[in-house]
Amino acid sequence: MGGNRAVLGEYRTLEDALWAELEELQRQDALARLTVVVPSTWLVRHLTVAAARRFPDGLFGVRLITFFGLALELADALSAPSSLAAPIVHERLLLHWLESRDPGGSLFGMDLRTYDFASALAGAVRDLRDAAVPSDPHVVLDGLRLAAGESASRLTAMDVRKFGVLLEAYGSYGAALEAAGLQDRAAVFQRAAGGAARAADPLIFYGFYDMTQVQADLLTELARHQHLVLLVPNGRPPDVWRFGQWFRDTFVPTVTATAHRLPPVEEPPRPEIHSAAGEADEVWFCAKEIRRLLDDGCPAREIAVVARTLEPYLVRVNAVFPEHCISYTGVPGLPLLDHPLAQSIRSFFRLALDDFPRQAVLDVIGHPLFRAEQRRDRWSLLAARLRIHRGSDWFRLGSPMAETRKDLPAADLRRLAETVASLMGRTWPDIASWREHAAAHRRAIDDAFRTEALLEQEAAVVRTVGEVLDTLGILDRLGGAVSRADFLEAFERECERRVLPPRDTEGVAVLDAMAIRGLSFRHVFLLGLNARVFPRFIVEVPFVSDAVRREVFRVMGHHLAVRTDGYDEERLLFHLVRSAASERFVCVYQRTDARGRMRDPSPLLRSYLPLDRSLIDAVPRTEAGKRARGNVRTPREIMLEAPDAEEALRVFGRAGDVLARARAFLRQIECEGELTGYEGRVGPLPAPWARRAAGLTASRLEDFGTCPFKYFAADVLGLAAPGDEACEDDLSPREIGRLMHAILARLYTQGIEGSIAGAPAVRAVAAQVCDELERDEGLRVGGLAALRVEQVVRAVEAFVAWDLAHLGAWVPTWVEAPVSGEVGGVPIRGILDRIDRDPSGRLRIIEYKRRFGGPWRIALETLGRRGRKLQAPLYLGLVEGARLGGDGPGPTEIVLQFIENYASDDPTVEPIRERCHSRRLDAETWTSVQPDISRVVQVFGGLIRDGWFFIRPQDGPRGHCAQCDFGNVCRKGDARAPTKAARMAQLRSYWGIVRPQPPRP
Ligand code: SF4
Questions:
Q1: DSSP assignment, residue 951?
Q2: Which of 675, 868, 948, 964 to mutate to test the pocket of ligand 1 (most atoms within 8 A of CB)?
Q3: What is the pLDDT of residues 899-937, one digit of tens each?
Q4: Which of 161, 388, 951, 964 could make an SS bond with 709 (beta carbons 3.0 to 4.6 A apart)?
């Protein structure tokens, strides 16, 4: 070690010292092969570029390499290379240990045999391995127990006990890793120490201000065999450079004979502080500033954008920088599982295990690269219409019920059935080795997806998934066959860690704070300088407390990193980021987040913040405020503001007709005039729509009265209401209504033919109806739906019991009776639930409703006049017109029975009061209201014929939008349309009906 030297100084002078060192060594021996070892690949890249600029003729014989790269070379030169274990291997090893140590799964009183726990344990084990802690737990524990007895020690018995358990895991992990012929990073450094004598001589270590114990051990070995020069970052003030003190003050002197301190450097630029509201504004401000610098001639490579962690900024940077024509580098690639193809592959693997859930199946077979028929646009609708949720539901695709349904296109049904059958027919190994599982899944990808026709990024996805499968194949070395569920759990976990290769570009460096160490730029923008972000919030690891870590170092000399020393590192990092700037150091903190919640600036800024915060430049939140700053505008911003958008587009070489059309559209809908074609004024209906609109019923007219667009969407366009398919296991309100009506219709039909036998009959009929609905329409009555059926049955039982007891002279005579006729000159039809007749020939109409409440509190004639509830008056009129009772006195009344309400009363406690559960309209009242009803039908019918389908929103808990299925397709957010509709003369009669003026006092 005699000739080894250390040179200490700030990075800025240290780099010059490195070049001087290289020049000197080459001067001594022009053919010398020099190796410069650095801590990171970013530093390798930076020094390579800097050397190319400084030595235009090249640096012959000089090689730049990371410390880990050197260790790998030395280790592999010593013995056959062994595979580097991926993180999933560490986790599996520790999962094995957890299971073998505690088969019952109650370590620390909890079942901790999970990947997450194993991962946390792996972090602690990695710290021990980096610190080269002896694997014999007795040696370590004895040492610590002795230390615990000293007065200076802060160790508790619990600390030692917990550490003892961790040491067990640590010992088992090391032995298992070795037995499997695998290695981790610590093992690489340890093996490399044996090959230190083979390293090239001399070695220059540049830029290390701290090391793990295994790195330090290798360096010690290298120092014994080779000539070393250590260029160690160090500087002032001491509290900034507290982190890594042990390395500089204790370790470096042990491997070097002399140390030379470089002169202090000038103070780095003072932070220039700005505040912003949320990440988006931070990046916007940064982009504007960078664009200005680039326009002023600053090369992009002289600018860096830094954040403590880049993750919160990536989406914004990827959107805003290209818009400002800023090329950039350093941004990590897209996470593998964010790519749609990777998501499809993962879902494809899981389908059989998850019992083929509908959405996952549709996602997989709908992927453009999935090998299937090209026409798949209606598959999703087909699956929804057949109420397919998962598993055996898919067999409905080939059932006679599906084939006979007219609303399901047969060709699409067949293709979907074939595709799903091929998915369900695929065989997977159940219990197999990791390698066999991996091979089967790799084959399955090629079988199911068009892997021969991939774009560049898709090819990267398939390649990365293949690498993950290869990694899992290695797990065979840990022994044992595994189930497919275990295999896929490990697969997904490993996929979550992978990212796709980033774009290989040049430009502004976008880096996290760790990557910028040792680099230099003219301008550095540091984002996210907020409390708990930079410095990050640090917590101790529960398995090894900081007290234990300190004692291990103090007693045994193994440098085990102390977590809370991380705050010292954060302070140093801030200093290094600041020192990386030679001209300007711009710091941006969030005064509020994007939602306006206050945030504190970082304590690292404390000494630079003015007392009066209003002196800090605040990036405005509003667009107008941003415009007023007078920054350079992007083409998009210019086009959005330009009075002549087409001209602006032409200037930027783009076609302007799309924007012109869009603007014309906006002008039309935003004008204060009349309703337009975009707002439901569609004009006389084309023939196919007119045919659908022709069959008016009471409920369709009610829909029109509620909201004309709702009627248009449901009855003219025939859009499927999403509500039916959304109820996974339950019945939708529509289905409950159908079920209730079907049971009552069947019961009273039986009553007409013979007699209604009471409760047992209700249950038998309900079972029949459910069977038929299951068979004919794919309605699945299980789980929640079965409970719902039970509710319906109980309600029907209660109603029927009451009804039979009060029928008196009335006899149910017609059930589900179709009637039609003309009202106000408009053809109307309907199906009446039940008509009773008495011996004198009088009729009464019974209509079944679910529940009493809401609008039913208002009198039926008033509801009819307002077009809200038209069934009662219309049905009375239709029965009267149809002369259903022959020459008898005709209908006397219509009674609406609210069936579910009958189940809420207990007749054994109190007699059921019918008037609380029904509503009536008698013939006399109907006669007085008839002209108004005719007018309602005439007005609504006329508007439908002329194509007026504007929106009539009414939000809030009592508004009708809450019960509407078409809120996601209508434009109820457009505030102008309702106002325009309210003002139009053609619609005055409509508003006169649905929203009459209150009578004048
Ligand atoms: S959500 Fe409201 S405005 Fe939209 S269609 Fe339904 S009822 Fe009309």
A1: -
A2: 964
A3: 999 888 776 666 667 667 899 999 999 999 999 999 999
A4: 951
